[in-house]
Every structure is written in structure tokens, then in C-alpha cells.
Give the backbone structure.
Amino acid sequence: MKQLKQILKLISVFFFLLGITMVKAQELKEKQLRTLSSLGVPYSNYDRSNENIKTDFQNILKLDKKRKAQSIASSILIPMGLLTAGFGVSLLPRKSNESADYEDDIRGHERGPGLLTGLASVSLFAVGAAQVGVGIPLFVSSKSKKKRRDVLLSKYEQKNN
């Protein structure tokens, strides 16, 4: 019977500590408060015990973080994709007698730049197109996340003014 009471005490202490930890985890950290402040939301003016406000502020922070990550990824992928596709197009075989890529074979017939050059140019173009194809949806998604974040922000800016 004593062991059962001790086990129950340990379990109740465990759940109590777990509850305190979960409540503390819902509080916003200093960096998150600075981010909200930079977005124009003075967090100190609002009731910190209101769960809806906490949830909205956490959603604002989450949307802002995802927006920034997608914006950075798209701003890297799109220019790199354009450069890669452009380089692939510049390597495409062209029929020109002045080109140093063309050689005469034994009979004097002109040969093209070769299979490897053609494959490399098509591959570079395909990789560049894929990069742009991934970068554009990231850019569009970044803009939609910004709009959703701004809708939440406007809700609290109106209350503040």
C-alpha cells in the first residue's frame, strides 16, 4: 500500500511538472517578441492570458518564418536557374563555319560539336528550367503567406490604433 501511494505521488509530481513545462512553452521568447515588435504589433498591450491572442501571434510568427525561408529559396533558385538555362542554350550546337567547335573529318565534311556537347547543353537547360520551375511556386507561395500574415497583423493593428 505504501508503494502504491509513493507511485501515485511520483505520477502526480510528474504530471504537475509536465503541465508547468507546457504552459511555459506557450510563452513567447524574447526573439519572438522582438519580431512581433518589428512587425508593428506591441505584444505588451495585449492580454497575455488570452489563448486566441497567443495562437494568433504564434501563427503570425510561423507564417513570417516560412515566408522568409521560401523567399530566400526562390531568390536563389530563380536567378541560378536562369543562368544555368542560359548557359545551356549558349552551348547548343549552331551551324557556323567560323565556329571553332566544328572540325573537318578525313573527307573534308564538317562534323558537329559532338554528342557530349549537345547532351551537356540540353542537360544544363533542363536543370535550369527545373530550378526556375521550383523557384516560381516558392515565390508565389511566399507572397500568399505574406498576405495571410498581414491579414492577422491588421487585426491587431486596428485594435492598437
Strands lie at 103-104, 110-111. The mean pLDDT is 80.
